[in-house]
């Protein structure tokens, strides 16, 4: 498939990966086989990140580039259903833990093991790596991990880790409390009321669990962030996610969430964007006037892809 048949956003993403792969390989000693380039891809619900990532893989795998690309979705690293249920029951008043999605609902040791094994997959006698798979249709949509994921064999050129909160960093209690007092940016006040939805303690509980995810982010060499237009980065998520649900229901006989259920679904993710989303470009924050305590490893190797209301490419820029 030639490059000009792919969406413009994918062409920018692919060129960024190709540039970063060349630089990555140049840093590897000539006597060693290079490790795969690890690329994080972050984008909000409904933005099309899964679609764009699949097209990116097709682009890079096409005969003109012939790269071996492995995609790992953070959604496939969720805890098994029984552990998700235990988490919800042990935090009955925290809506952020009532179901999958938030940091804290993933199996961090499993993700770390998969990433470490993929990092070594180009070594002699490295063997294969099993990619987990989470089936969201099980348990009436609550989902569960199943055993028939993809098996990857080296050599691998590029590993993509994609998900809504990839690159989100934990922050300080002071920062959460400061931001709590402010209006939610790029979201109409009547669309979502943070203070009736969650408490500071609920957000801090997620923040505590997010600290464990940093070991995943440390594995990344480069980054791609997909964003909505700056004036409506959060508001547009509701529109995009609703469009996705309507599209799915039109094809499966109407099975899916109601419009109200879609809104509630997106509501649970808004605190994550508000309190932790800056981490993609700023890393972890000490809060107040304290200097940033950790910058992401991909600063200087990041690409922002900004898309419009209809997911059309507006512009791409590096960070």
UniProtKB/TrEMBL annotation:
Gene3D superfamilies: P-loop containing nucleotide triphosphate hydrolases. InterPro entries: P-loop_NTPase. It comes from the Eukaryota. This is Unplaced genomic scaffold CY34scaffold_67, whole genome shotgun sequence.
């Amino acid at each position: 498939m030639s490059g000009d048949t792919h969406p413009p956003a994918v062409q920018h993403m692919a060129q960024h990966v190709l540039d970063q792969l060349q630089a990555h390989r140049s840093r590897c000693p000539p006597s060693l086989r290079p490790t795969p380039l690890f690329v994080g891809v972050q984008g909000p619900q409904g933005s099309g990140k899964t679609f764009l990532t699949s097209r990116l893989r097709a682009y890079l795998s096409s005969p003109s580039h012939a790269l071996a690309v492995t995609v790992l979705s953070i959604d496939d690293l969720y805890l098994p259903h029984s552990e998700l249920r235990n988490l919800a029951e042990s935090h009955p008043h925290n809506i952020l833990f009532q179901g999958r999605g938030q940091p804290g609902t993933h199996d961090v040791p499993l993700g770390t093991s998969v990433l470490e094994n993929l990092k070594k997959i180009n070594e002699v006698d490295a063997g294969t790596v099993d990619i987990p798979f989470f089936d969201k249709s099980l348990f009436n949509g609550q989902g569960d991990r199943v055993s028939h994921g993809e098996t990857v064999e080296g050599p691998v050129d590029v590993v993509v880790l994609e998900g809504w909160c990839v690159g989100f960093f934990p922050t300080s209690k002071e920062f959460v409390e400061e931001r709590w007092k402010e209006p939610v940016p790029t979201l109409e006040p009547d669309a979502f009321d943070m203070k009736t939805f969650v408490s500071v303690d609920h957000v801090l509980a997620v923040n505590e669990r997010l600290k464990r995810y940093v070991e995943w982010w440390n594995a990344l060499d480069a980054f791609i962030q997909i964003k909505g237009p700056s004036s409506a980065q959060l508001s547009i998520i509701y529109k995009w996610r609703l469009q996705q649900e309507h599209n799915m229901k039109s094809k499966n006989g109407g099975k899916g969430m109601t419009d109200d259920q879609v809104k509630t679904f997106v509501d649970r993710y808004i605190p994550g964007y508000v309190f932790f989303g800056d981490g993609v470009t700023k890393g972890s924050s000490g809060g107040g006037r304290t200097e940033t305590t950790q910058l992401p490893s991909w600063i200087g190797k990041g690409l922002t892809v900004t898309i419009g209301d209809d997911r059309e490419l507006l512009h791409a820029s590096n960070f």
